[in-house]
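Q: Structure tokens for this one, please.
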Amino acid sequence: MSRMEKFGSRAAGRKAQSKEPRRAQDDEERLPPRRQKHPSSRQKFSKWFYNSLFILFVLLVAALLMWGRNAFPQEKQVQPAIGQEGVK
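A: Here is the predicted structure, written as tokens:
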């Protein structure tokens, strides 16, 4: 006697097992989906992360602009010396 004759196919066993619990459960007895029961805060954290990156970028740009103005002040126009106005 072969294994298939003795035990049958695996698919037939799975089909029989999977149909029984579905018939036994009513809509009232079913549990809510996991996402409703334990909501994820992933979207909230990703929003905070990207907002903080944007704020850090804006602060970096502002700090670099202030540093550039203080480190390299614009030179005032120097008036030419008397007698050298026409000389280039």
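A few notes: The radius of gyration is 38 Å. The chain is about 60% helix and 0% strand.
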